[in-house]
Amino acid sequence: MQMDALVSLREMPMLKMPQDEQAFAIADRIYEAAFATELWPDALEAASALSRSAGGAIFVVSDHSPVRAIGEAHLQPLLDAFMADNNWRFSESVQRICSARPASFVRIDDFMTGQEIGRDPLYASARPFGVGSPVCTSISMPGGELALFVFQRWLKDGDYDEAAIDLLNGLRPHLARAGLIARRLGLERASTAVSVLGDMGLPAAVIGESGRVLSANSLLEKMADIFLSHGGMALADEPANALFQQAIAQNRDDRAVRSIPVPAVQERAGLIVHLMPLRRAAHDIFSGADILVIAATVNADANMPSPSILSALFDLTPAEARLATALASGRSTQEAAMEVGVAVKSARSYLERIFRKTGTNRQSQLVALLKSARSFL
């Protein structure tokens, strides 16, 4: 297919929407693809169109299983060339990104020298297709896998600007939650609500738009001290429940908080409750349910989680995650601001947003929560 024809494919009706509406529609496609893996190419193509990319792909890297990859259909030959004969293992760009684990979309070029770029298989396989200038983010999965979301531009379009990277970063929290489900399902299509909840290995339930529980797996049913049911699902912890009920009421609002911390109590570890909107095909898979609720346990540990983990758990921006990490490491607001490289006034604004997203209201409470959030599981 010629490049001009590929570009014409991107003249989709969605691109005539305002940019925020486009992002909302793309988030729907991402959540749909979490349960219907054959739809990932469509979701990636929509994200590519928004960011003026040539195409996008997902790589799941693991120490104990082969690398899996899904990409847009029109660039599948490029993906095949990169994956052939384990070419990806010889890619310094892949190794560099896996080591750096960026908590936001970054230009891979910034991690490479010119000489390294010249010999890297990722770049070498892309050039014959007229593709270059990749950006990437990494998302750590509970089982130790790393999901890499990579987008590339046509060589003729030059490098990514900050505006395009910001657009992709706006989609990152949705990619993180969808990646969690896709990893649990082995990147295979889900068949029924019962099979999904059983295979997930996480306490989970599906609820309607009113909050009424339609189906729950046995793991969640054993958590009656955490999840209450009084006409609709609720959380026993009052501050967490306030965020939870708000998330249910605002399910159709793309800006709603969808990852809610539940503090540890006595012998029980802290939890992160994720709410995933069920859109399009996913809505059908779950027999018309509106929200998937997942409870992921976090382990108490003296070490701080990385900014990438905080971003995935609480929808923090990269700057907010870095500030939260600095504060939880014992820095004052002024010291943390200096470390992150922002003005103290900006740091205080970030902190207010961090409080709102994590359901906390004091720095000591935030530190206690973050120190319990070492990993998803």
Précis, in short:
By secondary structure, the chain is an alpha+beta fold. The protein is built from 17 helices and twelve strands.
What is this structure's SSE topology?
Layout (H helix, E strand, L loop, with lengths): L2 H7 L9 H17 L4 H12 L3 E7 L6 E4 L4 H8 L8 H9 L5 E2 L6 H6 L1 H6 L4 E10 L5 E9 L7 H23 L8 H7 L4 E4 L5 E4 L1 H4 L5 E3 L3 E3 L2 H12 L9 E4 L8 E7 L2 H6 L5 E7 L9 H8 L3 H11 L4 H8 L3 H15 L4 H10 L5
Antiparallel strand pairs: 1-2, 1-5, 3-4, 4-5, 6-7, 6-12, 8-9, 10-11, 11-12
Helix pairs in contact: 2-3, 2-8, 13-14, 14-15, 14-16, 14-17, 15-16
Characterize the structure shown.
The protein has 377 residues and is of the alpha+beta class. The protein has 3 domains: 3-184, 2-Layer Sandwich (Beta-Lactamase), CATH 3.30.450; 200-297, 2-Layer Sandwich (Beta-Lactamase), CATH 3.30.450; 307-372, Arc Repressor Mutant, subunit A, CATH 1.10.10. It is 45% helix and 17% strand. It has a 5-stranded antiparallel β-sheet, with helices on both faces. A 5-stranded antiparallel β-sheet has the order 7-6-12-11-10, with helices on both faces. The protein has a two-stranded antiparallel ribbon with strand order 8-9. Strand 8 (227-229) and strand 9 form a beta hairpin.
